[in-house]
Design a protein that fits this description.
7-stranded mixed sheet; Rossmann fold; 21% strand; alpha/beta
């Protein structure tokens, strides 16, 4: 693999890099193969102190393997890695695994070291503080009992509590809900630790990283800017390369004619021209491997009746998922679903598909609806099969739009599986490649109603761009559960927000607009500085609560011209209460971050915070209702 450093700098980053930074890690000519498959060869780059670097490459090129090598967990075949003396590296694996006998506290406490007090009690306190910030409060829970999102949060706590000099993060946002992603985004954007990470979350990448390293076509390209800057400069590079190839091809035809006409015996100048010809030939025969494929499938006819939820209710013990939920899904509707882990998003989908029974009510699904379901769990492939055989088991041909018909092999090429890669055994595929194959098998059945549960996990950015383009043009219905904010903003018309306990809100817009509305609501609601402490739970809910009855998709809003005496008194008291609760919340959060409080106090605060947030939410919503009447 050739190394091609493109030191393209934005004005802001150019100034920042004028200062001399201490190199933390220098990678020189690194190479790795697995069996007969070369993952990468001759890779070179440097990571300096305080640099936040994003690594971008398509699935199957060895991103996770490279991170594992740099962390010291895996060996390599060639080259060398030079570390700064005493460099402390923290590594977050894409799929963390813990000893099932350990508790959550055991895992994190084992790596804690307090510089001032390294006693057992001090390390335990430090571990509990970090776990609490990541919303893990059952410290004695066995790791074998954790959900995927909880495992990721415990793994993050384990890495962050070490306070390393450099963080290596492999898909840190996978399985995290939006609240946790935003917490981590804020944490990492402020840290002085060096960071090298692989992530498909483009907002996360854009807001944290100031440098992008791209592995593409056996070369390394370095861009001194964030993800948005990288996109701009990468396109410039590809345009320049395309022009260079065009010029080389024009000259190549002339030189090829000269080579064919010249005798074998040549003088010195002729030999120089011959050597130049072979260099020109290398350029002319380059291919820009952009793979700008487009999928346009008909989706099949779908009638006006899609599905109607009538008084749908579902609970697991005391945990309410749906509480007399009513909803009429429209033709060609594209809905996104967001909410914290455990709020019931996936369960809602499974009840719609008939995979989980409702306790009460029903989903009345139209007769023309043909579901295509992409689940979080993935598809249980026969790993001894080849890629092409797994697809041919479903269909030899796929019907596209406008009467076009593709063979299974041609369809796979749309999903970035080259003819050679199609004959690879499934067990040799990376996790991202298997997810891409799974997506292919869902779409090739040509559904007219797609339900995608966390489709972005483990997919590379190139595949996501293809999927986004497909979904934007999809002539059918769509429901997406995702924590990928960029993906949601590109695809959906509106979102359902699962707040938990059966509370479901319909917001008419993108996720970014929803977050903006939440952030902007607080200054209007709280006149005495409450906006400084606003988070998702303390902001009023925008949109409408679809758990309440709706008429023609709208809620009737009864408006008064002025507040009654009793309401004025309530309004004044709410203002006092909200200020008091905000102050209490600020104090608790400060104490949890101080590192000086006792274990009992941490547990007490951890129990109080959810109740405090709920009370703030309730009072804030009522304050907003009254302020609108008053205003």
């Amino acid at each position: 693999m050739h190394t091609f450093a493109l030191n393209i700098q934005s004005p802001l980053t150019r100034y920042r890099h004028m200062a001399t930074l201490t190199p933390y890690m220098d990678v020189q000519g690194l190479g790795k193969r697995i069996g007969d498959r070369v993952l990468f060869h001759d890779i070179s780059f440097t990571i300096n102190e305080r640099e936040h670097i994003g690594l971008i490459a398509k699935n199957g090129t060895g991103k996770s393997t490279l991170l594992s090598i740099l962390s010291g967990d895996e060996g390599y075949d060639e080259g060398r890695i030079i570390f700064r003396n005493d460099l402390k590296v923290g590594y977050l694996e894409q799929t963390p695994v813990f000893d099932s006998q350990f508790t959550v506290l055991d895992v994190v406490k084992a790596v804690c070291h307090n510089h001032h007090d390294d006693s057992e009690e001090a390390r335990e306190l430090m571990a509990k503080q970090m776990l609490t910030q990541l919303k893990i409060t059952n410290f004695n829970q066995k790791t074998s009992e954790l959900s995927g999102g909880q495992v990721k949060r415990v793994a993050l706590a384990k890495v962050l509590v070490q306070e390393p000099d450099m963080l290596i993060l492999d898909e840190p946002t996978n399985h995290l809900d939006l609240e946790m992603i935003e917490w981590l985004e804020n944490y990492l954007s402020r840290t002085t630790m060096a960071i090298l990470m692989v992530t498909h979350d483009r907002y996360f990448l854009d807001r944290i990283c100031s440098q992008i390293i791209e592995m593409d076509d056996s070369r390394i390209y370095t861009y001194k800017g964030n993800y948005s800057y990288y996109l701009e400069k990468r396109q410039e590079r590809l345009d320049n390369l395309s022009n260079e190839i065009t010029r080389a091809n024009n000259l190549y035809r002339t030189e090829l004619d000269w080579m064919r006409r010249m005798p074998c015996a040549r003088g010195h100048k002729a030999r120089y021209r011959e050597e130049a010809f072979y260099e020109l030939e290398k350029i002319a025969k380059q291919r820009i491997n952009e793979r700008n494929v487009r999928l346009e499938m008909s989706g099949g006819y779908i009638g006006n009746k899609i599905f109607v939820a009538k008084d749908a209710s579902k609970a697991f013990g005391d945990k309410v998922i749906l509480d007399h939920f009513d909803y009429t899904f429209s033709r060609y509707e594209k809905m996104g679903i967001v909410g914290n882990n455990g709020a019931g998003k996936s369960t809602f989908i499974k009840t719609l598909l008939g995979l989980e029974p409702l306790d009460e009510g029903k989903f009345d699904v139209g007769t023309t609806v043909r579901f295509g379901y992409y689940s979080q769990e993935g598809m249980p492939f026969n790993k001894e099969q080849k890629v092409i055989d797994a697809v041919r088991d479903i269909a030899e041909y796929v019907e596209m739009g406008d009467g076009e018909r593709l063979s299974a092999s041609q369809f796979l090429q749309h999903f970035l599986f080259s003819p050679q890669e199609q004959h690879t055994y499934i067990y040799k595929l990376s996790g991202g490649e298997r997810r891409r194959l799974y997506l292919c098998t869902v779409l090739m059945r040509n559904p007219n109603f797609l339900i995608l549960d966390e489709p972005t996990n483990d997919l590379d950015i190139v595949t996501l761009q293809i999927l986004e383009d497909y979904l934007a043009k999809f002539r059918g219905c769509l429901i997406i559960i995702s924590h990928d904010r960029y993906f949601m903003d590109k695809v959906v018309d509106h979102i359902l927000v699962f707040h938990g306990n059966g509370q479901i809100q319909d917001f008419p817009g993108s996720y970014s607009l929803y977050r903006e509305s939440k952030n902007q609501a607080s200054p209007t609601r709280l006149p005495r500085g409450g906006a400084d402490h606003t988070d998702e739970k303390t902001s009023p809910r925008a949109g409408r609560d679809v758990a309440e009855p709706m008429a023609n998709g709208q809620e009737p809003v009864a408006k008064k011209k002025k507040l009654s005496y009793k309401e004025k008194h309530e309004f004044e008291q709410l203002t006092i209460d909200i200020d008091r609760l905000e102050a209490e919340k600020k104090r608790i959060e400060a104490e949890l971050s101080s590192g000086t409080i006792s274990t009992d106090k941490i547990i007490e605060h951890s129990k109080r915070l959810p109740l405090l947030n709920d009370e703030l939410d309730e009072k804030s919503m009522r304050w907003l209702e009254l302020s609108e009447i008053e205003g």
